[in-house]
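Much of our argument rests on the idea that a fold can be written as discrete symbols. The amino acid sequence and the backbone structure tokens for this protein are reproduced below:

___
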Amino acid sequence: MKEIVVISGKGGTGKTSLAASFSVLGGAEIVTADCDVDAADMHLLLEPDFSQTEDFHSGLLAYIDQDRCSSFGNCKGVCRFKAVAVIEGQHKILPLECEGCGYCARVCPTGAIKMTERAVGKWYSSRIKTGGTMIHAKLDVGGENSGKLVAKVKTEAKKIAQREGKGIVLVDGSPGIGCPVVSSLTGADFVLFVTEPTVSGLHDLARVHSLVKRFGIQSGCIINKADLNPEIAEQTMDFLKQEKILPIALLPYDENFTKAMVMGKTIVEHAPEGLGKLVSEAWGNITEIIEEKGE
């Protein structure tokens, strides 16, 4: 089993749309994992059925038992995060402010405060329109430890791939270089960068590549909308050559890319003989590289 991770240094490069296209091309023979848990939207293109849903817990949250609370106010006095408020004469915890440190519970003279496991999101196992399986998740507003939720999504995707004998786990990672991206990269066999020919696109590609280099993972790159700025596209190609990143494809700007998203489809479904054909060829290049790594 091989793991392909699709990432970008910045948002808006077309990363998720391309990853969804690869999922469609891979069909039922791959397991898809949407690890962009902070802004999950891959489900908009792959039509998951949300057949299995589970809460995801991470960290602690203070809870005040009002029957035992004597309203001394020790908790409010020591909370540096202003997570304790007096509402209608009762001391209550503001969940979005609570950091789960437990100091309030230690100073409560009546033992009215307990530290409970915090539910910060949900993860799902779904059948998608390709007949394959997608593991995906959603972090709640203000939820923390998205890196741990990413790890959960990847772990479940690998379990299913091993159980069902699938050869590839396709991961749509988060943009940027933060904790969720690091979690996405762990255990990957191949990383695909998706970038665009802009100054910020090239800068952020270099930044995220510096992270991938630390993992020693083979990588390739797709330059999306490459014809909009040929000069920067050429500079990007020079960077790929310099850093020994495999050039997978240069995709032209095409309004069908946006039209497909509006229709809830991938570009390979909406325009299979146009831009979709180039994306199909890119997927063929990637799978060929993965097969060579397995030999």
